[in-house]
């Protein structure tokens, strides 16, 4: 059957396979195939792979030696993978248990299976989990050459935003001063530091900041990354007029922190502002909020209006890339 595959010359095949494996993108339920001088590597997330590689539809043979959850259940369950933790989102606890047991009995690499037990809640943006298989909710997630240790019970993390994070990080230049205002465990901050930026990451969550420091160490950027625990509105006093780039990934309430962003911004500063808005006007409210906070001290240029993903019926998670120019 046709499945998404990364197509590369055979001479680059093994190196490419290793990169995809590090990012947990290799679809192990289908065979890697050589044809006409090209290697076809099946992938689990075409969008994430397409950011860097040529992705095509290819008739890759299924691996008959692996038993997958669908083989055990008789239907194809929906789940998300984060490192070696498999995440379910089932309202029926009996169905969740059935799927978890099938995953445990399959060839799927999973140490822990959890089911969402609450929505993201509180100012620390964490959720509760029902642990159905295994014990630990701590895992290592690999993304675009970086690795992140995290505990999903203590911190917020979305693997679905990997492509969007990579888009932003690719814009970062060596020697920049970048400030991640809601850094979490470092999925923006760490790769920005790997590109040679001097980075400050701030977060209110003590556990997230501990993981941020550990992830800086794991990825060899501890000398270029400063982790700050606390409210960024207070931390901004120590970094006024400092930043060449700001990341504001707190889409439900980023507008409440725009005054702090303006304090942090240097003479010319790129702002990546994340928002959730209705489909009728997904960008206008964010642009208006940025202008209200930045003007007249700064001229505001809107560089990119981007829909990141659908968030809810008729609502989008969006990003505005904006450049602020001091007057």
UniProtKB/TrEMBL annotation:
Record bears the keyword tRNA processing: yes
One Pfam short name: TYW2_N_2
Biological process annotations from GO: methylation
Keyword Coiled coil tagged: no
Domain SAM-dependent methyltransferase TRM5/TYW2-type span(s) in chain numbering: 79-326
InterPro entries (alphabetical): MeTrfase_TRM5/TYW2 (IPR030382), SAM-dependent_MTases_sf (IPR029063), TRM5-TYW2-like_MTfase (IPR056743), TRM5/TYW2-like_N (IPR056744), Trm5a/b_N (IPR040601)
GO MF entry, a single one: methyltransferase activity
Keywords carried by this UniProt record: Cytoplasm, Methyltransferase, S-adenosyl-L-methionine, Transferase, tRNA processing
Domain of life according to the entry: Archaea
Gene3D superfamilies the record matches: 3.30.70.2580, Vaccinia Virus protein VP39
Name of the protein described by the UniProt record: Class I SAM-dependent methyltransferase family protein
Organism: Halogeometricum luteum
Phylogenetic placement of the source organism: Archaea, Methanobacteriati, Methanobacteriota, Stenosarchaea group, Halobacteria
């Amino acid at each position: 059957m046709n499945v998404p595959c990364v197509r590369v010359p055979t001479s680059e095949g093994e190196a490419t396979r290793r990169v995809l494996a590090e990012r947990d993108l290799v679809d192990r339920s289908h065979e890697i195939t050589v044809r006409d001088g090209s290697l076809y590597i099946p992938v689990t997330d075409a969008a994430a792979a397409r950011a860097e590689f040529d992705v095509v539809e290819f008739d890759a043979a299924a691996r008959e030696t692996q038993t997958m959850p669908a083989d055990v259940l008789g239907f194809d369950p929906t789940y998300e993978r984060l490192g070696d933790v498999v995440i379910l989102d089932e309202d029926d606890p009996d169905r969740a248990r059935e799927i978890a047991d099938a995953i445990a009995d399959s060839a799927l690499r999973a140490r822990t299976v959890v089911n969402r037990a609450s929505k993201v809640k509180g100012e620390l943006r964490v959720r509760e989990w029902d642990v159905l298989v295994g014990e630990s909710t701590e895992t290592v997630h690999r993304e675009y050459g970086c690795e992140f240790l995290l505990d999903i019970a203590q911190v917020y993390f979305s693997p679905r935003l990997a492509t969007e994070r990579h888009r932003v990080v690719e814009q970062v230049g060596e020697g920049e001063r970048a400030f991640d205002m809601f850094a979490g465990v470092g999925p923006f901050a760490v790769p920005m530091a790997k590109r040679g930026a001097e980075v400050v990451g701030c977060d209110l969550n003590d556990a997230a900041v501990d993981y941020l420091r550990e992830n800086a160490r794991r990825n060899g950027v501890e000398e270029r990354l400063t982790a700050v625990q606390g409210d960024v509105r207070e931390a901004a006093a120590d970094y006024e007029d400092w930043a060449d780039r700001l990341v504001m990934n707190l889409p439900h309430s980023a507008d409440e922190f725009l005054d702090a962003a303006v304090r942090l911004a240097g003479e010319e500063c790129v702002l990546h502002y994340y928002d959730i808005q209705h489909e009728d006007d997904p960008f206008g409210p964010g642009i208006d909020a940025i202008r209200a906070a930045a003007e007249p001290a700064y001229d505001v240029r809107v560089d990119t209006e981007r829909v990141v993903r659908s968030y809810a019926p008729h609502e989008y998670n969006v990003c505005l890339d904006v450049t602020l120019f001091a007057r």
